[in-house]
Amino acid sequence: MRIKIAYFIVTVAMCLSLALGLERRAYAYVDPGSGLLLLQAAGAIFTGALFTIRKKIKSLFTRNRPAESPAVSPKTKA
Q: What is d(CA 56, CA 49) in angstroms, rounded to the nearest whole number?
């Protein structure tokens, strides 16, 4: 487990150093609608996550009622 964490940290450090070391100026235009597109994507991800874990969320707000045992019939078939 420690080896996996160490490899992950080394990989992240290498990616960050490459990203910072090879930085160039970007002469590009970002329109105002791009921000709303990112906001919409974040909302969709949040809603999807809530949808997938809805049973756990529902269990937080409801009580677990004891299950009713089936009625025992005094009559038995022989």
A: 11
Q: Is residue 73 part of a domain?
A: no
Q: Fill in the amino acid letter for 60.
A: L
pTM recorded for the entire structure: 0.39
Whole-Å CA distances, 37 to 30, 33, 40, 47, 50: 12, 6, 5, 15, 20
Q: What is the rounded CA–CA span in Å between residue 57 and residue 49?
A: 11
* The total number of structural domains that make up the chain: 1
Q: Is 1 exposed, middle or buried (0-12, 13-18, 19+ CB in 10 A)?
A: exposed
Which range marks the domain in which residue 42 is found? Answer: 33-60
pLDDT digits (tens, 9 = 90+) for 24-55: 887 877 777 888 888 999 999 999 999 999 88
Is 15 part of any domain? no
